[in-house]
From TrEMBL:
Domain FAD-binding FR-type intervals: 3-108
Domain (2Fe-2S ferredoxin-type) ranges: 280-368
This protein's UniProt keywords: 2Fe-2S, FAD, Flavoprotein, Iron, Iron-sulfur, Metal-binding, Oxidoreductase
Name of the featured protein: Ferredoxin--NADP reductase
Superkingdom classification of source: Bacteria
Originating organism: Hymenobacter rigui
Cofactor: FAD
SUPFAM superfamilies xref list: 2Fe-2S ferredoxin-like, Ferredoxin reductase-like, C-terminal NADP-linked domain, Riboflavin synthase domain-like
Single GO MF annotation: 2 iron, 2 sulfur cluster binding
Length: 368
């Protein structure tokens, strides 16, 4: 398998709002880079203490149709290390190390499809939705897209002009509904004021005559917004299989949620396998190699591997992006966070090593 690492040139910067910039990349040889709408790029930047390399996931706001370009859109997070470094220092002509696009929050365009796609996002959560939206509009001439996009006010809307242009270009196929929590100007007929909650979403879906139970839903934004959207869709009888979601930040109570739900297979036979987190040796298989190393109680499996200079794939280090996903072939693993995994993946024994701790002596994980 070819290396997942690439060095890309920054070829264009677009200031989207006062605190968000789109960074366009190309490979130096201008060859296209495989990606799917909804995937993310991992940027690797030397902005940690003492020049330590830091990784962060940024969803692609571009679509595969824009190859050889890839774009990400970064919003400044107050006090955040990488987002501030990028917004303050990134320049056209700079080279940035990345890990090739990854992620399972994807929409695959099908040219013959006739479907209704509903995208619900807030703030920087627009990025993967923008990629999906452009892909469906370009590649599925019979499909409809409704974007419900929540922001503080009119000035914080990322891609405002592009969305307006797309609405005109694809009149009748793209509908955009903005929701502003603190609007600067008086509301007009298509603007919704207040938080994007279940009532607002239900009203918009009804006004826009979305065939609710048949549509496909993609959610990306703060936990509260996504829970409200899920509650609205549940009221409309939308099957869970039609709803996909992605989080950029771990929910505050995520560790508690995952606690007591060890994920794993196989028998707990040894006396020391008492379900507590303690120093244990794990085996990780990756790209044909097998590694064995000890994981201390204060470490995740990924941290222990990195301490041993074992080069495993990772990005967010928060259990959100699935870059470090692996299948637990034996033993039990405790996950501090499971946002990135669906119930079906949990049942199949998938784990995220960046938030995983071995609970038994016989843990073997095959990293994807
Ligand atoms: C799959 C995935 C895709 C992502 N895509 C994008 C994207 O397209 N655009 C984008 O701007 N960001 C995106 N992010 C978030 C991004 O990876 C970083 O987490 C974000 O830029 C903050 O990094 P930082 O180094 O500036 O902050 P850090 O120094 O890591 O964090 C500082 C503090 O801010 C909090 N924080 C982190 N992210 C956010 C946030 N988004 N909102 C509020 N608080 C936050 C952290 O919990 C922490 O307390 C994505 C994350 C994931 C997991
Ligand atoms: S590195 Fe993102 S889920 Fe583990």
């Amino acid at each position: 398998m070819s290396s997942p690492y690439l060095t890309l040139n920054v070829v264009e910067l677009i200031q989207e709002t006062a605190d968000a910039v789109t960074i366009h990349f190309e490979r130096p040889d201008r060859q296209p880079i495989a990606s799917q709408p909804g995937q993310f790029l991992t940027l690797i930047l030397p902005c940690g203490p003492g020049g330590k390399k830091e990784r962060r996931a940024y969803s692609l706001s571009s679509t595969p149709g824009e190859a050889p370009r890839l774009a990400v859109t970064v919003k400044r997070v107050a006090g955040g290390l990488v987002s501030n470094y990028l917004l303050d220092t990134v320049r056209v002509g700079q080279q940035i190390d990345v890990m090739a696009p990854l992620g399972n929050f994807t929409l695959t365009p099908q040219s013959g499809a006739t479907r209704s796609v509903v995208l619900v996002g807030a703030g920087s959560g627009i990025t993967p939705l923008m990629s999906m939206l452009k892909a469906v509009l370009r590649e599925e001439p019979r499909s409809q897209v409704l974007l419900v996009y929540s922001n503080r006010n009119e000035d914080s809307v990322i891609f405002a002009r592009q969305l307006q242009q797309l609405e005109q270009q694809y009149a009748g196929r793209l509908q955009v509904e903005h929701v502003f929590s603190q609007p600067l100007r008086p509301a007009t007929e298509h603007k919704h004021t207040g938080r994007l909650n279940r009532t607002t979403l239900l009203r918009i879906l009804e006004q826009r005559q979305v065939p609710a139970a048949q549509a496909e839903y993609y959610l990306c934004g703060p936990e509260g917004m996504m829970l409200e959207a899920q509650a609205a869709l549940e009221l409309l009888g939308v099957p869970a299989s039609r709803i996909r979601r992605e989080s950029f930040v771990a929910a505050a109570d995520s560790a508690e949620t995952a606690a007591g739900q060890p994920n794993g297979h196989g028998d707990v036979s040894a006396a020391e396998d008492d379900g507590t987190i303690r120093t244990r040796t794990v085996t990780v298989q990756y790209e044909g190699a097998e590694y064995q190393f000890a994981v201390e109680p204060n470490q995740t499996i990924l941290e222990a591997a990195l301490d041993q200079d074992i080069d495993l794939p990772y990005s967010c280090q928060a259990g959100l992006c699935t870059a470090c996903r692996g299948k637990c072939l034996s033993g039990k693993v405790h996950l501090d966070e499971r946002e990135g995994l669906s119930d079906a993946e949990m049942k199949q024994g998938y784990v995220l090593i960046c938030v995983g701790h071995p609970l038994t002596h016989d843990v073997v994980i095959e990293v994807d």
